[in-house]
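2024-03-11 09:14:02 INFO worker-7 job=invfold-0412 stage=load source=structure_tokens
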């Protein structure tokens, strides 16, 4: 909405200049209809992006409420971040189930049985130490929730739900 506000301020400014008198307003008489049309089109695109962002925010809010009710707030709070890193909307139900089952929604959890699995999705060391194709950053910290969900999404794209025995 920044551009739309800028256009609105500019239009209001032109109106004030026109009200100030003919000598001041004459400096702005050279604005062509084509130029004004471009500004309108830019504002319309910005409005469309804002509407899409609002729809996404409402969807995320609804999903957060749903999965918080189903698995608890500790799990439901990860819906926004999952969407932000690329998880498709239609995978959220299974993803929240996996997060609940694997880590209970706690991002700093490590597997207590020595497997080395870590983070929200309990990703295995061969996933995050650079020895698999899933990750391109060997120093990846699986306890970082954003990175864990991001690289979990990349692994899901390659292997589906298989790594989580689904």
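2024-03-11 09:14:09 INFO worker-7 stage=emit residues=166
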């Amino acid at each position: 909405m920044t551009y739309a506000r800028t256009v609105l301020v500019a239009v209001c400014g032109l109106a004030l200049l026109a009200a100030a008198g003919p000598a001041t307003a004459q400096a702005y008489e050279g604005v062509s209809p084509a130029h004004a049309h471009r500004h309108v089109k830019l504002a319309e695109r910005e409005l469309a992006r804002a509407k899409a962002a609002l729809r996404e925010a409402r969807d995320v809010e609804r999903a957060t409420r749903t999965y918080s009710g189903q698995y608890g707030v500790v799990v439901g709070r990860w819906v926004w971040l999952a969407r932000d890193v690329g998880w498709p909307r239609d995978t959220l139900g299974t993803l929240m189930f996996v997060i609940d089952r694997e880590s209970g929604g706690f991002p700093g959890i490590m597997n207590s049985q020595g497997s080395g699995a870590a983070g929200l999705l309990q990703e295995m060391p061969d996933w995050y130490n650079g020895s698999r194709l899933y990750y391109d950053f060997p120093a990846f910290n699986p306890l970082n929730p954003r990175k864990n969900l991001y690289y979990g999404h990349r692994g899901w794209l390659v292997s589906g739900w298989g790594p989580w025995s689904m």
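2024-03-11 09:14:09 INFO worker-7 stage=report msg="Confidence is low (pLDDT under 50) at residues 6-12."
2024-03-11 09:14:10 INFO worker-7 job finished
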